[in-house]
Design a protein that fits this description.
The chain is mainly beta and 526 residues long. Helices cover 2% and strands 43% of the residues. Among the domains are: 131 residues, no CATH class; 86 residues, Immunoglobulin-like.
Length: 526
């Protein structure tokens, strides 16, 4: 295998829009890239590897500011669905679909899932190993997770008796395999789903199986299909699984739905588990999108479990636009295992009445109880439905290095981008929004030693929330919780000692409807 540096090396930098909050970096504009994936090396977070359809691979050694690009090859073929991960030694892996004859018309198209490895950032990729070879059956839509305690690699995917078949006798199932030797060999795949799906690659097909590792080495996997989103787990490293899948939630409208400008769109789930050692350690999260609020209003959702997947919360909407006619779609999710913070990436059309599309990042510092949304793309784009746009985006985070990756389309030309997410800007309290309905008057005294008061006027009855956040945007105190207030002046007291808060900088956040006003306060030692 030729080294990544030896064939074609390009460093792309996109100029920063004058009013952009986050710098966008164009990784590549060649080979019609889509379905990107990205990984950060926890042992050296300056090292990033990304990939996109169909065989594009990208490497950065400066946290994503500049990139080198090459094209992956394998004797088993490279046919898309790129998934990138890194193990406990810092080696990277590129997983993808197969096409040994390099043709989607050949009988061996999609006949296995391939794993290629790059050691020590050498740029040289192994020819690859594989799993899932099973006669004429088709293997599709894989995803992986690494157990940081023992370096095991877990993989789950969808197996089709015949991809695209409408025959009643053909079915799809969720398969699972693992490697205990850094991808050199793989366990015999086993079916883990209880209810099979069809092979049409639509709502009744079982897809979206993404593994996650629990705090004691548990393997968690959720997927969707004819029974909605369901969950399974293994407590012995993937040897055995539950006899019955656990229902998580339904997906009204299904996972395969229509978004204008895309030739197809899916809401397949992503599953992660918090291993940070923080207050939400062990919590399992599942993120997806669906159209339960109508075909013109795709939304992004989250559920969580704090008991190993036995029970699940009600769905919580991640996007905060409150629009009845805007699409948020193709979401992906990760957790920074050093902080426990959740990050959800998605496309968003809240700012337009046509197909113009932005990219948003939502983050939660309180275990998914609340999310703050921020636009991270510097300009919108408009996709063309006659060009395949891809089925997913992705995001990686480690040690407050947050690197989303997404595709965009400009006049039919496709590109792949990331953003340099400055955490000071990301976690900063939202800017004030002018509105005559609620008027924030003052915070006094400020600075203060014991207590501070916030006063505000309600000029038109409104549903109000008032809470206090720290410098990083984390909610530390709630003063008003979704209370409908009538016209008048209000004053609320804040005593940091009641909440066991140390001296420092805090913010009052007064929320009403879909707007927020803030006031900075400084708590001093006596």
């Amino acid at each position: 295998m030729k080294p990544i540096f030896g064939f074609f090396t390009v460093a792309f930098l996109l100029s920063v829009h004058a009013k952009a909050q986050f710098q966008n970096i164009t990784i590549s504009t060649t080979s019609f890239p889509n379905e990107p994936c990205i990984a950060i090396n926890p042992k050296n977070p300056a090292q990033l590897v990304a990939g996109s359809n169909i065989n594009n691979v990208y490497l950065s050694t400066d946290t994503g500011h500049t990139w080198q690009t090459d094209f992956l090859g394998s004797p088993y073929g490279v046919w898309g669905d790129p998934v990138i991960t890194t193990d406990t030694t810092g080696d990277f892996y590129f997983f993808h679909l197969s096409a040994p004859s390099n043709s989607h018309l050949a009988p061996d198209w999609l006949d296995r899932i391939v794993c290629q490895k790059m050691s020590n950032m050498s740029g040289a990729w192994s020819p690859g190993t594989y799993t899932g070879l099973n006669g004429n059956k088709d293997q599709d839509k894989e995803w992986v997770a690494v157990d940081r305690q023992n370096n095991r690699i877990y993989m789950s995917w969808s197996q089709f008796d015949l991809y695209g078949s409408t025959a009643p006798g053909d079915s799809s199932n969720i398969l699972f395999s693992f490697s205990s030797d850094a991808g050199s060999s793989w366990s015999t795949p086993q079916r883990i789903n209880e209810l099979a799906g069809d092979c049409i690659d639509e709502d009744n097909t079982v897809e979206g199986a993404v593994p996650a590792v629990g705090p004691n080495g548990e393997v968690y996997i959720a997927w969707t299909g004819p029974a909605g989103i369901v969950f399974d787990r293994s407590l012995d490293g993937g040897q055995t699984w539950l006899p019955q899948d656990i229902p998580v939630t339904n997906m009204p409208g299904g996972w395969d739905f229509t978004v204008p400008g895309l030739n197809r769109c899916n809401g397949l789930p992503f599953t992660v588990c918090d291993l940070s050692g923080g207050p939400h350690h062990g919590t399992i999260y599942i993120n997806w999108s669906d159209q339960r609020n109508g075909p013109n209003n795709t939304d992004v959702w989250l559920v969580k479990s704090t008991d190993g997947g036995d029970t699940w919360s009600a769905p919580f909407r991640v996007n905060d636009d409150n629009s009845i006619s805007a699409h948020q779609f193709l979401s992906s999710m990760t957790v920074d295992q050093t902080t426990g913070y959740l990050y959800v990436l998605f496309y968003d059309r809240r700012n337009y009445t046509d197909d113009k599309t932005d990219v948003y990042l939502a983050y939660s510092t309180d275990g998914g109880a609340s999310f703050i949304n921020k636009k991270i793309s510097t300009s919108p784009f408009t996709p063309f439905s006659n060009i395949f746009f891809g089925d997913y985006t992705y995001i990686a985070a480690h040690g407050n290095i947050i690197r989303p990756i997404w595709g965009r389309m400009d006049m039919g030309m496709q590109s792949v981008l990331t953003a340099i997410i400055d955490t000071a800007s990301l976690f900063a309290a939202p800017t004030n929004v002018a509105d005559v309905k609620v008027e924030l008057e003052s915070s006094h005294p400020n600075p203060f030693h014991e207590t501070s008061f916030i006063s505000f006027k309600i000029k038109d009855p409104a549903m109000v929330n008032l809470f206090v956040t720290d410098l990083f945007g984390r909610k530390v105190a709630t003063l008003i919780d979704s209370e409908r207030l009538t016209t008048g002046k209000y004053v609320r007291q804040f005593d940091p000692k009641e909440h066991r808060l140390p001296p420092g900088v805090y913010f009052f956040r007064l929320g009403y409807d879909d707007k927020v006003k803030t006031s900075k306060i400084i708590y001093l030692e006596q």
